[in-house]
Amino acid sequence: MMIAAVLAATLWANPSAQEAQPAPEAPPTERQPEPSLAPSPAPSPAPPEAAAPAADVDEPRPSRRKTRRPPSDVARRFEGSASAARAAANESAAQQPSGFAFEAQLGNELSYLSTNLAIIGMRGGFLMGLKTDRTILGVGLDVTRVTRDSSEAGVTSTGTTTAYLALAGARVAFAQSDDYRVEMFGQLDLGIGGYSSDLTTDNNDVTRYLVQIGPGLRFWPHRSLAIGAVTLYRRVSASRSSNGTDITEAVGFISTAIEVLAVF
Question: Which domain holds residue 236?
């Protein structure tokens, strides 16, 4: 009786000791497929992750330099006009481009009138006219004065002869330096005139014709003033009458001279 009471107290204190109910049955498992003998495809590689740009590296900047295009016809004409304007300005700064021109020359000469007569003389003259760009045109005067000896019938006499000729001349500069201060020019003069002499053997009634040509060199220290030198070949023809006969004599000689040119 006492044992039954203890067993009843034990069952009341621990309900888990009660009779366990049967667990529900597990559902039937499905049949697993048999593994295939074919090789399985290789897994595709994962796309690479984009690398993050470094924070301390500057990205290259696009170049701002523009490609130079070939100049158009309008640009070429504009550049040509600008170059011509600069050249004209430089020339105007170096020398007076146009205006009234006055030239003075002084030099000497050596000539032969005949096989037995040599003359060494001094020559001077001037030309005044108009300068336009590289050309000077004008009129002037040429004077030559010589002292010479003349012999006739065994008598030698010394006298002075002065020749004077009216000139029409041209000066053309055919080469110039980059700064237009130094130039080479050509000179051409045509003249007509006569001469006077104190020698009794000379006939003063003589007409002279002159052609002279040669190169020269000129320097412009100021835009209105130039100095230079010239070498000329002078050809003089003289016509005179002797005992009713017309006689023509030609004289060729070399002359060197220095010159001063002013342009206003």
Answer: 87-263
